[in-house]
Design brief:
heterodimer, A: 302 residues, alpha/beta, Rossmann fold, Alpha-Beta Plaits, 2 domains, six-stranded mixed sheet, four-stranded antiparallel sheet, 11 helices, 34% helix, 30% strand, elongated, B: 450 residues, mainly alpha, four-stranded mixed sheet, 68% helix, 5% strand
């Protein structure tokens, strides 16, 4: 992999709070221009890791490199971070708060005003510019928070559960903005425990559990490596064959088809042959990929 | 640096552009004026005339007592007392109030009560009955022989807690009895009065250059300065705490910490709010100067300022320096508390100790006003936590040698450095701890770890 194309490199990073180890010997890379899914159950160490990446805390061990150099407060200006727990100043006008957040990322003056107007209009919040936070609905507040994350046009966007509490229209809207960033060759780290969203958005994933890495790599490859033993079957007859434990480990009944989990080492071709030999009428027999959800549950429970 | 300035600007505007700032700026001088005037007003409202029966079988005391209690006599006494109190350096507040009230007392109305051929017990019962019926307020029993060893003047009053009335009455009675005794001993009262007139006691303080100055104005001015610093420190300290808690409560801290260093953020907050405090003080100083200047133009009021202390520009610089020292001491304590707690209400409980220290400093300034050169005054005016209030008061009362001022500034600056060091460590960790209030051992761990 070309050095230049790596936005973030995390190497052997550990973080402890007293006796509790929040992150243990974690290493991974995030490539430029990719959407990187950072997944894990609650309490796995996601937020701790992100806080180290954005420079809020420092690792006890290991190193973090951003854009090819060690983390520094200069580099913070190139990151846009939307924390999971987020808020706004209650009694301050929207434009004033955005101006403050922009100034803290070294964007100020007319340039900041221009960008604030642009984003407020884009988010349909133009009329709310002079209103206070308490006048806005929860959804509007979340859009304002999102604006504060992208105002300084960051090269790396870190979104921690960005869609929680958003209605479907706004989710769609946010998705558009995110894909726009992707086309500009910006890197997006996307942290969530909602696998369906991750599956739709992410190209690469990292799954951590109990402060350790479980799976990482491109979503495609990961799915392929898990995808050889799942069959979608629609057939009448052949029930006897499916009871053969040397062939079939598990059968899940869906509405109009069955999901067959093959036994270890069993061949899908043999199963198909046996079904036909038993006189079953097979109308669908398809190798399917596991969903990210399946992989997640399997990995986290094992 | 750019980010630090952005924080300063943000915090400054947040305080100054609020209504509460404008109201506070206007209201505090008004409240201070009320504090000065209200006690006098309240006592001036007092004084329904006291209806009294005097039972004096000897008829020797009653006429003199009546004369002493006449309105003109009481007024005259009050004026005299007021004149004395002006040259009195530090009358206790109770004394001052009593004297002030003496000027407003309404006087006594004498009610006749026939007492022919009755036993004292009967008379007492009758008078008590009249008091209960609200016909009279008090009665006095004069013993038949005032010089008997067991002679007792019985004064019974419905207004037992009205110390102004009973004190006035007691004074008048003492005087009447004394006059009677003098008359009995054949000593002329006028001669005695002439001989026992008080000396003309001309008390004035002296400043370090040996120039005379009147201390009444200094007392008042020192008190005002002490009060002003105390109030601004308490208010702005709690403003800091509120701002810190808000950022923690709303989780804005997380965004801020991903944009700038915690130390920059905390210092920016302290400096921004501190500048807002300075702005308010400046408004007060400028407007006070303007009012005094306008009043001074009117020739009549020249007398008013005869006793005012001279405040040099250097003194104002000192006041501002000590205000800033005090501000940074208490603001860093309040920032630390804000980072520990989860809500403003919780912070209120923790704010109690620093407010108490501040209050002790304010009370100590009275000791400093009384004797600016005592060793107590020296120690409290260089001690951290107290010096920001006591030193300006001391400078105004009697400017100490420069080395003491410099020492005080140095000691307090060191204290500030230590407190900011502590606060920044607690701030860095505490601002990201959600959910529950930190215990003191936890805070101690944060300080050691980070």
């Amino acid at each position: 992999m070309n050095e230049k194309n790596v936005t973030l490199r995390v190497e052997n990073v550990s973080k402890r709070f007293g006796d509790f180890s929040a992150v243990e010997d974690l290493s991974f890379e995030v490539r430029a221009g990719r959407v990187f899914g950072f997944l894990g159950p609650n309490g796995a160490g996601k937020t701790t890791t992100i806080r180290m990446i954005v420079g809020i805390t420092v690792p006890d061990e290991g190193s973090i490199e951003l854009f090819g150099s060690k983390m520094s407060s200069e580099l913070q200006n190139r990151i846009g971070y939307l924390p999971e727990e987020r808020g706004l100043y209650k009694k301050m006008k929207i434009a004033d708060q955005l101006r403050y957040f922009a100034a803290l990322k070294n964007v100020s003056g007319a340039e900041a005003d221009k960008r604030i107007d642009f984003w407020l209009d884009r988010m349909n919040l133009g009329e709310w510019k002079k209103k206070k936070t308490t006048d806005l609905s929860k959804g509007m507040q979340q859009k304002v928070q999102f604006i504060s994350t992208v105002l300084h046009n960051p090269d790396l966007l870190i979104l921690d559960e960005p869609f929680s509490g958003l209605d479907p229209i706004n989710v769609e809207f946010m998705m558009d903005v995110i894909s726009e960033f992707k086309t500009q060759d910006k890197t997006i780290i996307f942290s969530t425990h909602l696998m369906e969203t991750a599956e739709k958005l992410c190209q690469d994933i990292l799954l951590i559990n109990k402060s350790q890495k479980v799976v990482s790599g491109s979503l495609r490859e990961i799915k392929e490596s898990y995808g050889k033993n799942l069959i979608a079957l629609r057939a009448s007859g052949g029930e006897k064959v499916l009871e053969d434990k040397s062939l079939v480990a598990k059968v899940l009944e869906h509405s109009d088809e069955k999901e067959i989990h093959l036994a270890d080492g069993a061949s899908d071709q043999l199963l198909l042959r046996r079904l036909i030999e038993s006189g079953a009428v097979v109308t669908k027999f398809e190798q399917i990929e596991p969903s990210l959800n399946d992989i997640f549950i399997e990995k986290v429970q094992s | 640096m750019k980010k630090f300035l952005a924080v300063v600007k943000h915090e400054y505007k947040k305080v100054v552009l609020k209504w509460s700032f404008l109201i506070g700026t206007l209201l505090l001088p008004f409240l201070a004026a009320c504090f000065a005037v209200i006690p006098a007003v309240i006592f001036s409202l007092e004084g329904e005339p006291t209806r009294i029966v005097i039972v004096d079988s000897s008829r020797r005391i009653e006429p003199r007592l009546r004369e002493n209690l006449s309105t003109e006599k009481i007024m005259e006494k009050g004026r005299k007392a007021a004149n004395e109190s002006l040259s009195d350096l530090s009358p206790s507040q109770e004394e001052q109030m009593k004297r002030g009230a003496g000027q407003f007392v309404k006087g006594f109305v004498f009610v006749n009560h026939g007492v022919q051929n009755q036993t004292p017990e009967n008379i007492r019962a009758e008078l008590t009955e009249r008091i209960i019926r609200d016909e009279i307020d008090a009665y006095l029993f004069v013993p038949p022989d005032i010089d008997a060893a067991d002679a007792k003047f019985e004064f019974r009053s419905r207004k037992g807690s009205d110390f102004v009335t009973s004190d006035t009455f007691r004074d008048a009675l003492n005087e009447a009895v004394r006059s009677q005794r003098l008359a009995d001993a054949n000593i002329s009262e006028t001669v005695l009065k002439d001989l026992s007139r008080p000396v003309n006691f001309d008390a004035k303080g002296m400043d370090e250059k040996g120039e005379e100055k009147d201390s009444t104005g200094t007392f008042i001015a020192s008190f005002i300065i002490g009060l002003m610093i105390y109030i601004t420190l308490a208010i702005y300290g709690q403003t800091i705490m509120g701002a810190v808690v808000e950022e923690k409560e709303t989780r804005i801290a997380e965004i801020l910490f991903s944009s700038a260093r915690p130390f920059e953020l905390m210092m920016g907050k302290l400096v921004g709010v501190g500048l807002a405090g300075l702005t308010q003080l400046a408004i007060w100083v400028v407007s006070a100067t303007a009012i005094i200047a306008v009043l001074a133009l009117q020739v009549d009021s020249a007398q008013l300022f005869a006793s005012a202390p001279t405040i040099t520009p250097l003194m104002i610089v000192y006041f501002l320096i000590f205000f800033l020292l005090g501000f940074f001491i208490y603001a860093s304590i309040f920032a630390l508390i804000g980072a520990m707690v989860t809500t403003v209400q919780e912070g209120g409980q923790f704010a109690f100790p620093p407010i108490m220290i501040l209050l002790v400093g304010f009370y100590l300034s009275f000791a400093v006003i009384r004797d600016p050169n005592s060793s107590l005054s020296f120690w409290v005016s260089i001690a951290p936590f107290f010096a920001p209030i006591t030193m300006p008061v001391r400078i105004l009362a009697e400017t100490p040698p420069f080395w003491q001022i410099a020492l005080s500034i140095f000691i307090n600056a060191v204290a500030i450095a230590g407190l900011i060091w502590l606060a920044s460590r607690v701030y860095r960790v505490g601002m990201l701890m959600y959910g529950k209030r930190a215990t003191l051992p936890e805070v101690w761990k944060w300080i050691r770890q980070s």
